[in-house]
Amino acid sequence: MRTLQFKLLLCAVALFFCGPMPAAGKIRVLIVGGGTSHDFNHWYKQVDAATLERDGLCSVIYTSNTDSIPDYLKGADVLYLVTNQPINIASRKAIFDFADAGKGLVLGHPALWYNWLGWPEYNLQLVSGGANTHDEYGSFNEDVVNPNHPVTQGVEQHFTLKDERYHYDVDPSGPGIEVLANNRAAGSIIVYPSVFIVKNPKTRIVCIALGHDGASHNIIPYQTLLRNAVKWVAHKS
């Protein structure tokens, strides 16, 4: 059975990366999802994949098998990481090799948590911090603070949505971040980054802390941010 599963994986990789060529300029995106507390199959495998594939922007493959990351990354242009599952040593190395080669990363809502205590390099170098807590699910105001960046082009400068407001904190030992958008809850003066660039010296990384459910994934500002982020990290904008 394990041999059959391995053969099927190889076939999937071959079809995605070695099969019919995508249209010129199409960005190859690997989405890695799966785990707890979120409907990964619906919001990431279906909705976000459709958002990225719209108008022929991207060719997307989704996997919830984190052991398959090294194989799928071989021909990808962008890794969109949204899992909170365990990630083995080989896949951890593949992610860092991908980043070190200058390939783009978009790190979504579940992947901005401190998920992997035995892998501190991830949060330190690729997220430059992380979250351990969040507000209860509810409404808050989102503010684009750098409307001139390619990632925020065409995004409403102020909008309201329902989500888990992540309490992201910057690790001062990391490479640092450039905040593109932040959020605040009604009646609170505390502001948290929600869309930001990690100043990794080897690659482009965009982090999007929004994305718990359809109140994020189904709205135009989120979809525009996601598409823009993929284009920017792939050096297409």
- Structural class assignment: alpha/beta
Main sheet specs: 9 strands, mixed
Instruction: Give, in spatial order, the strands making up the sheet with the most strands.
Output: 2-1-3-4-11-10-9-6-7
Tally of strands: 11
What radius of gyration results from the CA coordinates? Answer: 17 Å
Give helix % range: 25-40%
Strand fraction equals 25-35%
Q: Segments where pLDDT lies below 50 for 5+ residues?
A: 1-22
Average the pLDDT over all residues and give the rounded result. Answer: 92
- Helix and strand element order: HEHEHEHEHEEEEEEEHH
* Shape verdict: globular
Give the termini separation: 44 Å
Total helices: the number is 7
List the helices and strands and how they pair.
Elements: H1 2-17, E1 27-32, H2 40-53, E2 58-63, H3 69-73, E3 78-81, H4 89-100, E4 104-108, H5 120-127, E5 129-134, E6 138-144, E7 158-163, E8 166-170, E9 177-184, E10 191-198, E11 205-208, H6 214-217, H7 220-233
Task: Label this structure with key terms.
237 residues; alpha/beta; nine-stranded mixed beta sheet; two-stranded antiparallel ribbon; globular
Notes on the structure:
This protein has 7 helices and 11 strands. It is globular, with a radius of gyration of 17 Å. Strands 2-1-3-4-11-10-9-6-7 form a 9-stranded mixed β-sheet, with helices on both faces. The protein is α/β, with parallel strands linked by helices. Helix content is 31%, strand content 27%. Residues 1-22 have low confidence and may be disordered. The longest helix has 16 residues, at 2-17.
